[in-house]
């Protein structure tokens, strides 16, 4: 796992299809191929997850969980006490399973 770089945009385009690659975030590679991406934004008090995407054929393989553990570690390094997801869409159950709590329209996880 590593930060997204400009050179990654072609591989991200193949993974995401029509979606625009995020400006900032983390990507996950497996055997040299980009297989996951988490779009992130740093705010004054939180690390905001804009989206998480795992290649369809690799879902249910714990890759999303590993990505979110990396996000948690990054939040701690950046002295952010919370990770926030404003729109979980169809991934609400995933975020619940990885420790987020629903706060109305958004999901929040407190970083220890």
In brief, what are we looking at here?
This protein is α+β, with helices and mostly antiparallel strands. The chain is built from three helices and seven strands; from the N terminus they run βαβββαβαββ. A seven-stranded mixed beta sheet has the order 1-2-3-4-5-7-6, with helices on both faces.
Q: How does this model look, in words?
A:
The protein is α+β, with helices and mostly antiparallel strands. It has a single domain (2-110), classed as Gcn5-related N-acetyltransferase (GNAT) (Aminopeptidase), CATH 3.40.630.30. It is 26% helix and 35% strand. The protein contains three helices and seven strands, in the order βαβββαβαββ. The chain has helices at residues 9-16, 63-77, 92-97, and strands at 2-3, 25-30, 33-42, 46-54, 82-85, 101-103, 106-110. Strands 1-2-3-4-5-7-6 form a seven-stranded mixed β-sheet, sandwiched between helices. A hairpin with a 2-residue loop joins β2 (25-30) and β3. The longest helix has 15 residues, at 63-77. The protein is globular, with a radius of gyration of 13 Å. The two termini are 21 Å apart. The model has no long low-confidence stretch (mean pLDDT 89).
């Amino acid at each position: 796992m590593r930060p997204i770089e400009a050179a990654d945009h072609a591989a991200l385009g193949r993974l995401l299809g029509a979606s625009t690659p995020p400006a900032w975030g983390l990507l996950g590679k497996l055997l040299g191929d980009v297989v996951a991406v988490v779009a992130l934004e740093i705010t004054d008090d939180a690390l905001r997850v804009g989206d998480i995407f795992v290649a369809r054929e690799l879902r249910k393989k714990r890759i999303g969980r590993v990505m979110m553990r990396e996000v948690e570690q990054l939040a701690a390094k950046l002295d952010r006490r919370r990770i926030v997801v404003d729109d979980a869409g169809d991934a609400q159950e995933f975020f619940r399973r990885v420790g987020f709590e629903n706060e109305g329209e958004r999901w929040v996880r407190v970083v220890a």
